Amino acid sequence: MILAGCENAKRESSASGVSSDTATAVPTEKPRPASGRSPSDTLASDRIITPGTSIGNTFLEEIPDTLRAILGKPDVADAAMGKVWLTWFGKKRDEHNNRTQVDVFLTYRDSSMSAKVVRQIRTTSSWFRLEDSLHVYSDFSSIRSAFPDLRYTGKYSSGGRELKIYDDLAKGVAFETVTAAGQTLCTAILVHVPGTPLNSVFFPIGESGVKR
User: What is the largest CA-CA distance in the chain?
Assistant: First the structure.
């Protein structure tokens, strides 16, 4: 997926310290909200997506130092106007020969501007799983059945494709989708602070950004 800069921000490449195929890495256990998921109960905690809370071992509200301890040094970094966008790429391509990535978006914790924390987490890897084993590449009709409150949020272009974004604002989870040959599939899953719209934080995805 092609990533674009935003607000004159500069994306800087660096050597990755990520040791796994999906940019997860060192297990760091944290309490998770109780849920009714049964398929995910058999998964390791570093594979579970919890809406409004985490993707794998990466949690909302974490600070940059904790991120580096879990994921290693980011492959790409972007910073502008008090916001930070970090990207880790998977070591191997996925089952469809696509490069996978984890994106983390941070902003200041509060008006004191003393510390930045994670506000959004995004993955394009099918290695992570939601309730009922939903994941990247799942059919969007199955996702809609599990999250009936999803609403269209915007769209963007990447690699000649139009991708649409649907968000369950209250639960804090969103899905990017693409339609081809009459089928709509998930291409990325995002976790965000419940009640906080994606574009209110930092979401400069695509060749020209997200549009309504």
Answer: 50
| Nearest residue to 174 (alpha-carbon basis) of 200, 145, 212, 143 | 143
pTM across the whole model:
0.78
Cα distance between residue 55 and residue 48, in whole Å: 6
pLDDT in tens, the chain (212 residues): 333 333 333 444 443 333 344 443 333 445 444 444 444 457 788 899 999 999 999 999 999 889 889 899 999 998 888 889 899 999 888 898 899 999 999 998 888 888 899 999 999 999 999 978 999 999 999 999 999 999 999 998 888 889 999 999 999 999 999 998 999 999 999 999 999 988 887 655 654 455 54
Calpha distance 176→187 (Å, rounded) = 5
